[in-house]
């Protein structure tokens, strides 16, 4: 497979690390630049996003590697996910991607080594031994976009396999699952963001087609891995209702509901500053021209009645195929939950508990203690 | 480096280093006419001629005064970048640069081959620009705008943030918009908001701005004889909002209708979050006496109003 990057920038200090060597041995024909971090930073700052996305920067760790998902402000509910920011930026190019505006570096960066991540995960779990942690690597980038070259999923699988009271989620829009299915861990969730083929084609440049994503999901399911799906961002476009209906139907042609750990619903939302950045890079996108309001957290989103319409429609179709599926909303206030599902979590900690409870009840293969409501804030 | 006098024709006309827009020369001309040149132009030799690095206004003034000789300070031709840097530094000490000037400086640096590395960093710091290529690219684009748009940005001294929505329109719409902004005296944040609305409407409907403004109610508002610019501005703003958020507007109107039907007593009023992000309404009443308490209670428990309340709250979700 041809790597999605043309140049690899290697920080001198990790030049001889085994992850660096392994990656370089898989990336034949790519130009490699070794330099100190100051010099590499200068090269990076001179890149635009479109060029930067074609570079890979192997750097020594910087910034917080493992931390609670920043989520968003009250009254919007968040699920207390924990993010592992080992990879920052993404070689794919979605028009709505918040990273275009959020990260200052335009270059996809992989932080080496992984030991600080393991130490941090360990520390967090020790601090709250009775909580079930959901970790994920797909917050500041795509979990698997670079996996054929980095093989990070194997490292994560190995570390998390058999580890109690936690799971690791790989969130992706790719079909690069070969490493992941080699050593599947029972507490790993492979998850995909889904949108109808038209949106994938127009707005998710460089990502795998719907069919390839779903084929990959099926292969993961067959390998014994748990699955997750994120209908996020849900967008309004001509014919949205029938296209989402078809999308859900197609999903369940490929996978079994009893192997799905969760499904999330989240409608298009973005900080106001993203609009100009994205429109400059994707002048043909029409996503940002829709009726939008500035939410209570300052982010732009569809007006609440429209979001509720979107969610109700999706929820109905999903439930038709998978009655008892664990469904949650990403960054919605309790009143939206109530309007669509008839009930809402009491707060973020309660939502976190509901995740743990659902996993404990439905997936005995995950090694975890029975979650106690009172232990969740 | 030396000072000498050169003939007007010896100056190259490419104005490679010029980054400021032409401005009024009356005072400068008067001062040169009265006392001659106080400061020579800064030039570098280029073959047998000279290229100006600083002093474009003085040069223009000398030309319009028909002076045949101009005093220049000639610098080594191998130091144009250094010299340009010093010129910028000196100017920066007196004033800050406009967005358009910054854009032109970036283009000059690109042409000089100073687009990369540390050398450029010090230029960026004089220009108060971050070392982020994405932002620099947006700024460079400003130098390619149509002349009237550049002039408008300079006249209002718009920052990149303020100008960016304007840059998102096509060049014909940009010109139509600044004509409208001048006509109605729309400035600053108000202008930025208006451009945002316009861009959404045009993007959604694939319209041009002149076509949009040719439809009602815009046409009528713009050409109305009795309204002041500020009245027109308010009306245009409302009309744009209605076009931009038709769904929200419809729901809000429905809520308003229900509120009217409720006939709130005691000068009470109902308010709600017009973005509809927060559900529910807020009811305010000022109550002065126990009779008024009874009236308010009676109104709140009035069975005949129940269905209106229900419709009102339902319409919010
Ligand atoms: S796949 Fe995810 S991280 Fe990558 S560009 Fe798309 S939205 Fe951004």
Structural overview:
The complex is a heterodimer of chains A (377) and B (317). Chain A is an alpha/beta fold and 377 residues long. Chain A has one domain: Alpha-Beta Horseshoe (pyruvate-formate lyase- activating enzyme). In chain A, the strands form 4 sheets. Chain A has an 8-stranded mixed beta sheet with strand order 4-5-9-10-11-13-14-18. The longest helix of chain A is centred in the last third of the chain and has 18 residues. Chain B is an alpha+beta fold. The longest helix of chain B is centred in the middle third of the chain and has 18 residues. The site of iron/sulfur cluster has 10 residues of chain A, from strand 7.
Defining traits:
heterodimer; A: 377 residues; alpha/beta; pyruvate-formate lyase- activating enzyme; five-stranded mixed sheet; 18 strands; 20% strand; globular; B: 317 residues; alpha+beta; Conserved hypothetical protein from pyrococcus furiosus pfu- 392566-001, ParB domain; 3 domains; four-stranded mixed sheet; two-stranded antiparallel ribbon; 58% helix; elongated; binds iron/sulfur cluster
């Amino acid at each position: 497979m041809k790597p999605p990057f043309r140049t690899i920038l290697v920080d001198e200090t990790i030049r001889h690390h085994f992850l660096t060597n392994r990656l370089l041995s898989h990336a034949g024909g790519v130009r490699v630049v070794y330099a100190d971090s100051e010099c590499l930073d200068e090269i990076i700052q001179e890149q635009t996003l479109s060029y930067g996305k074609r570079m890979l920067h192997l750097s020594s760790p910087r910034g917080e590697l493992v931390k609670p998902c920043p989520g968003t402000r009250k009254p919007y509910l968040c699920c207390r996910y924990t993010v592992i920011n080992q990879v920052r930026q993404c070689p794919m190019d979605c028009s709505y991607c918040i990273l275009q505006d959020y990260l200052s570096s335009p270059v996809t960066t992989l932080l080496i080594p992984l030991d600080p991540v393991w130490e941090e995960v360990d520390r967090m779990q020790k601090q709250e031994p009775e909580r079930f942690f959901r970790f994920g690597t797909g917050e500041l980038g795509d979990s698997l976009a670079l996996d054929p070259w980095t093989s990070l999923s194997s490292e994560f699988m190995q570390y998390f396999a058999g580890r109690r009271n936690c799971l690791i989620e790989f969130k992706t829009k790719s079909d690069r699952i070969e490493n992941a299915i080699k050593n599947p861990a029972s507490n790993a969730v492979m998850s995909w963001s889904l949108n109808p083929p038209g949106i994938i084609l127009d707005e998710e440049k460089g990502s795998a087609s719907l069919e390839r994503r779903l084929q990959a999901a099926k292969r993961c399911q067959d390998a014994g891995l748990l699955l997750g799906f994120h209908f996020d961002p849900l967008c309004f476009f001509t014919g949205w209702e029938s296209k989402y209906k078809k999308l859900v139907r197609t999903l369940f042609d490929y996978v079994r509901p009893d192997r799905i750990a969760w499904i999330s619903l989240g409608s298009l939302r973005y900080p106001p500053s993203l609009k100009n950045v994205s429109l400059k890079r994707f002048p043909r996108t029409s996503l940002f021209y829709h009726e939008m309001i500035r939410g209570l957290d300052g982010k732009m989103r569809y007006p609440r009645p429209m979001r509720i319409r979107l969610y109700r429609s999706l929820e109905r179709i999903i439930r038709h195929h998978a009655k008892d599926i664990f469904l949650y909303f990403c960054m919605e206030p309790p009143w939206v939950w109530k309007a669509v599902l008839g009930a809402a979590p009491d707060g973020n900690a309660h939502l976190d508990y509901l995740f743990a409870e659902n996993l404990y009840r439905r997936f005995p293969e995950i090694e975890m203690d029975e979650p106690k409501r009172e232990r969740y804030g | 480096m030396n000072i000498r006098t050169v003939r007007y024709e010896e100056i190259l006309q490419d104005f490679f280093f010029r980054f400021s827009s032409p401005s009024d020369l009356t005072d400068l001309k008067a001062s040169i006419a009265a006392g001659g040149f106080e400061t020579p132009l800064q030039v570098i030799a280029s073959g047998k001629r000279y290229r100006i690095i600083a002093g474009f206004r003085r040069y223009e003034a000398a030309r319009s005064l028909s002076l045949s000789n101009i005093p220049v300070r000639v610098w080594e031709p191998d130091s144009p970048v250094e010299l340009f840097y010093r010129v910028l530094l000196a100017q920066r000490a007196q004033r800050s640069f406009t967005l358009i000037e910054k854009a032109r400086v970036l283009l000059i640096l690109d042409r000089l081959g100073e687009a990369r590395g540390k050398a450029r960093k010090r230029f960026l710091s004089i220009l108060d620009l971050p070392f982020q290529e994405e932002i620099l690219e947006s700024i460079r684009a400003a130098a390619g705008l149509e002349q009237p748009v550049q002039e408008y940005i300079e006249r209002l001294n718009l920052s990149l943030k303020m100008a960016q929505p304007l840059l998102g329109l096509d060049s014909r719409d940009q010109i139509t918009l600044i004509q409208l902004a001048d006509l109605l005296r729309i400035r600053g944040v108000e202008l930025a908001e208006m451009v945002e609305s316009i861009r959404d409407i045009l993007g959604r409907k694939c319209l041009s701005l002149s076509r949009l403004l040719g439809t009602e109610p815009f046409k009528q508002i713009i050409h109305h004889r009795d309204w002041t610019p500020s009245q027109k501005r308010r009306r245009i703003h409302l009309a744009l909002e209605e076009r931009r958020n038709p769904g929200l507007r419809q729901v809000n109107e429905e809520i308003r209708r229900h509120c009217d039907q409720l006939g709130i007593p005691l000068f009470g009023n109902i308010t709600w979050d017009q973005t509809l992000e927060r559900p529910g309404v807020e009811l305010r009443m000022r109550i002065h006496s126990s009779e008024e308490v009874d009236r308010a209670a009676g109104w709140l428990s009035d069975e005949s109003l129940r269905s209106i309340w229900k419709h009102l709250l339902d319409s919010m979700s």
